[in-house]
Amino acid sequence: MNTPLATAPGASPAPVSGASAAAPAAALPVLPRPAADEFDAALQHGAYMPLTQFGVIDATGDDAASFLHGQLTNDTQHLDAAVARLAGYCSAKGRLLASFLTWRSGETIRLLLSKDVQPAVQKRLSMFILRAKAKLADASGETAVVGFTGDVRAALSGVFDALPDGVHVKVDGAAGSLIRVPDALERPRYLWIGPKAAVEAHLPALDGKLKRVSPAVWDWLDIRAGEPRITQPVVEQFVPQMVNFDVLGAVNFRKGCYPGQEVVARSQYRGTIKRRTSLANVAGEPDSVKAGAELFHSDDPGQPCGMVVNAAAAPEGGVDVLVEIKLAALENGSVHLGAADGPVLKFLALPYGVPTEG
């Protein structure tokens, strides 16, 4: 059973007396299956998509970097202006409450996360600011987030002087920041995050050069890139290594303490990681293919062997999924969705290598 974010165990320091971490969760809309020509544009040409599934938190103040450094799994104290970093936010038990892309915008540190967990995460983080000179603000309303994939260099050349040439490299321009994110199916991808008015002013010009596609295409591309995203149905289900965050560079094992750090470090150095995230496809379009759905192995039908982390419609048919699963369950037999007689998962290769600790 999922533990609601609002009731997750606290982390040091102690919260302000009488404060509550409760915050309403904004459910993500169900995105429709993209049309075939939308997938084709993303894979064969170039496409862009406004990403309504994300929210943005801005951290400001003299202590913003040091405060976040003590809360997140990655280094924000030494966050260079030209890079972005993945990071997680854990409970005291080392279970992920949220995943972020973090970067600097001037003196502000920006956090991009799933919109459905943002209210509770922002409130929880704010509880631990205490005497630090830091403030967290919801910047989603005045900020636009747009994803790009494929051959988009010419289209973006009118907005940015140069495109980032490496993963998680960032360039800034008058209309915001452009961040290179991991490729999907060998297609380059970028995130443009900037003031809503400035971004929207450029979109009509993009329409003449790129096809605008559904944000659901981005969810699928994230899955094919092997990059898990923590959304409400899977809050507090995974230690970072279970979703490959150590492989993806989202955990800094040399930095100081953060909530759950002892659990995360113990898992890493004692070789106790027996669960990882894999890529798979489920044929058809069963309603049960969604984040939080349990998986069962043919040889052990009585108990789940894993869970769906993210799911999105695939162009070849069916649904592509990132699944957290026992490594032993991948060795033989078959894995099924929802029950031992449910739809079978067909496992696919991730675009990066994963340690096989047993």
List the helices and strands and how they pair.
Layout: H1 36-44, E1 46-50, E2 54-60, H2 64-69, E3 84-90, E4 96-105, E5 108-114, H3 118-127, E6 135-138, E7 143-150, H4 153-156, E8 170-173, E9 176-184, E10 187-195, H5 196-207, E11 211-212, H6 215-224, H7 261-269, E12 275-282, E13 294-297, E14 300-313, E15 319-326, E16 335-337, E17 345-348
Keywords:
single chain; 358 residues; alpha+beta; Gyrase A, domain 2; Elongation Factor Tu (Ef-tu), domain 3; 2 domains; six-stranded mixed beta sheet; six-stranded antiparallel beta sheet; 7 helices; globular; disordered N terminus
Report on the structure:
By secondary structure, the protein is an alpha+beta fold. It folds into 2 domains: 193 residues, Gyrase A, domain 2 (2-Layer Sandwich), CATH 3.30.1360; 117 residues, Elongation Factor Tu (Ef-tu), domain 3 (Beta Barrel). It is built from 7 helices and 17 strands. The strands form 3 sheets. The chain has a 6-stranded mixed beta sheet with strand order 8-9-10-7-1-11, with helices on both faces. The protein has a 6-stranded antiparallel beta sheet with strand order 16-13-14-15-12-17. It is globular and about 55 Å long.
